[in-house]
Amino acid sequence: MLSLHDFFNPKYVITIHTYNTNIIRIFSKGENDNHTTSAEEIPSEVKKLYDFEHFFNGLLNENRYIARSDYKNILSGFKELHKYFLAIRNGGILPEYCLKHSIDEEKLILALETLKRANEIVDKHNNEYII
After folding, report:
1. What are the Cα distances from residue 92, in Å, to 60, 69, 88, 89, 126?
2. What is the DSSP string of 18-62?
């Protein structure tokens, strides 16, 4: 299981990126695309967003009560990333950004919204776990 210390270790993050080639599958526009995107072509911000989402989803898949301390440090690191994508979205260039990097815009927005609502989602998870 990932620990928060491991998650922020740059050596470990590089390992996540090289081990998980599913980044392309999750963020690409579709299976019929003629353009193939390599992991090196995917912007580091998208890779970081994937790492945040991957960690968070892993946490939600655990059959236990999730304390805020389990993910608080992850969310604090996400704030800057959220600001980055919010600036792109508010600037009206998110569609071009996604097109340029073969990223599914809807999935990117969904990942951002999911992590933005992390506390609410964890509360729901915890309520369902208790009941």
Report:
1. 32, 35, 6, 5, 36
2. HH-THHHHHHSS-TT-S----TTTS-HHHHHHHHHHHHHHHHHTS
Instruction: Name the domain count of the chain.
Output: 1
pLDDT tens column, 32-53: 444 445 556 788 898 888 888 8
Q: Which residues contact 16 (CB under 8 A, 6 or more apart)?
A: 51, 54
pTM of the model: 0.62
- Residues in CB range of 63: below 8 A, 6 or more apart: 129
On average, the pLDDT of the chain sits at 76
> What is the number of helices (H) and of strands (E) in the chain?
8, 0
The answer to whether residues 41 and 106 touch, using CB atoms and an 8 Å cutoff, is no
